[in-house]
Amino acid sequence: MAPRKSTRGKAPMEQLATKNPRVAPRSINKYTVQCEKCSKWRVISTVEEYEEIRCKMEESPYVCACDDPANIEYNATRTWAIDRPGILKTPEGFTRSLEVRRDFSRIDAKYIAPTGKKLRTLNEIAVFIEENPTYKDVKLSDFSFTSPKIIEDTIPEDVN
């Protein structure tokens, strides 16, 4: 496994649901971010707050109340993934869904429309917007299928 790259001052991290290889994680269960100043990890309580931090990360790195102890530690007891900074917040009414492949090879991004329909490509989103004039003001550029990268040294050793 490759050594862990430094993430200080980089994009927020996301933790996958479990380290147990018999139970394939299917979603993210904690959103965390690393302080630019003290390097402590902080759990972010909502997806909306996490997306707000992530979309501003490049111009305004996250800084916490550094005197407080870290409320989570980076280690290999769970699988971690790093998200790219600057991804825009999910358009209102839509949900960005991240699904981890059973073999931990990658995370797939998709959007859930307000109607519940799963949208896996920009073409599918364009068709949805065209067929649903209520969402005509939603821009395709507000959607990103860039998915977090799983940090290799936190993948369970016995995953095929």
From TrEMBL:
Lineage: superkingdom: Eukaryota
Signal peptide: none
Start and end residues of each CW-type domain: 25-74
Keywords of the record: DNA-binding, Metal-binding, Nucleus, Transcription, Transcription regulation, Zinc, Zinc-finger
All residue ranges annotated as the MBD domain in the record: 80-150
Pfam family, one: zf-CW
InterPro entries named among the record's database cross-references: DNA-bd_dom_sf (IPR016177), Methyl_CpG_DNA-bd (IPR001739), Znf_CW (IPR011124)
Gene3D superfamilies: 3.30.40.100, Methyl-cpg-binding Protein 2, Chain A
Compartments where found: Nucleus
Primary subcellular site in the record, as a coarse category: nucleus
PANTHER family: METHYL-CPG BINDING PROTEIN, MBD, METHYL-CPG-BINDING DOMAIN-CONTAINING PROTEIN 1-RELATED
Protein name per UniProt: Uncharacterized protein
Species of provenance: Salix suchowensis
Classification lineage: Eukaryota, Viridiplantae, Streptophyta, Embryophyta, Tracheophyta
